[in-house]
Amino acid sequence: MRLWATRIGAGVPVVLCHGGPGLWDMFGDLAELLRDSAALHRWDQRGCGRSVREGPYTWERTLADLESVRRHFGLERMVLLGHSWGAQLALRYTLDHPERVSGLVYVSGTGIDPAATWREPYRRNFRARMGGRMARWSELEGRARSAAEERELCVLQWSVEFAGNGMAYARRMAKPWFGVNFACNSALNAEDRRTWGTAELGERCRACAVPALIVDGARDIRPRWAVDSLAEALPDVSRVVLADAGHLPWMEKPAEFRTAVTEFLIRVSAGQ
C-alpha cells in the first residue's frame, strides 16, 4: 500500500490531515501561507486522491496510516493540523499518542457531541445557502452520474462552504480533480456514528494536556456551537473565530488564518 505524501517549507513540523472522508489533500493554498514558518507535511489518506485505492477503510487503519506518515518523515514530535473530518482524525491521534504531538490545530470541526445534535441545523443551512442551485444538486444526487456529473455535484455541494463567491472557490477546490471515494466515505462515516460522541471521548479530551487551537469560520453552515463541546473539554485550548469566512477559512481570510496559526506555532515551539 502506497500513500502519497510531500513536504514543503521549513520550521516547526506540521502534518496536515485533510477532510472527507474519501476526499484528498486540498491544502495547496494553506501550505503556501505557512511555508515560511513551518515544515508542512501533506498526504492523501488511504484510498484517496493520489494514494492507491485500497482498503480497509477503518479508523484503526487510518490512524495507523497517519503514524506511518510520521515515521516516514522521521518526526519525533509534530503539530497536527486537521480540517473538517480531518480535525477529528488529528484529535483522535492526539488522544492516542500525546507524547508525539506538540500541538493540535483543529479547523472547522464539529466537536465531540454526537452528530445528531447538529445535523438538522446543518441541513437547513445547506438548503438555504444552496438556494437556486438546490434543484440541480438534488437531481444529480439522486441518480447515477457520469464522471463529469460527479465533479459538477461536488462543486455545487462545496459552493455552500463559503461565506461568499462560493462557486468560484468550489471550482478551485476541484482542481486537480481525483474523484471522491464513496466507499471510504460510507465506511468511515458509519464507524463514526457508532463511536463518536461517547462519554469516554469527553473524558479523554479533559485529560489531554496537548496545547490546542480551534479555528472556525463564523459563517460555516455547520453550527459553531457544536464545537463548544470540545472547547469546553480540552484543558489547554484557545479559539479563533474568523468573521465572514465559511468552512475553509484559510481561503477566504488568509491573512487572519495565517496570523492565528503562526502565533500558535510560535507558542508551541517556545514550550518544547
UniProtKB/TrEMBL annotation:
Q: Which GO terms describe its molecular function?
A: aminopeptidase activity
Indicate yes or no for the key word Hydrolase. Answer: yes
**UniProt-listed Gene3D superfamilies:** alpha/beta hydrolase
Q: Name one GO biological process term.
A: proteolysis
Question: In what residue span(s) does the AB hydrolase-1 domain sit?
Answer: 13-254
| An annotated GO cellular component | membrane
- Domain of life of the source: Bacteria
Keyword annotations for this protein? Hydrolase
Answer whether the UniProt record assigns the keyword Hydrolase to this protein.
yes
Coiled-coil-forming residues are none
* Similarity field: Belongs to the peptidase S33 family.
Q: What is this protein called?
A: AB hydrolase-1 domain-containing protein
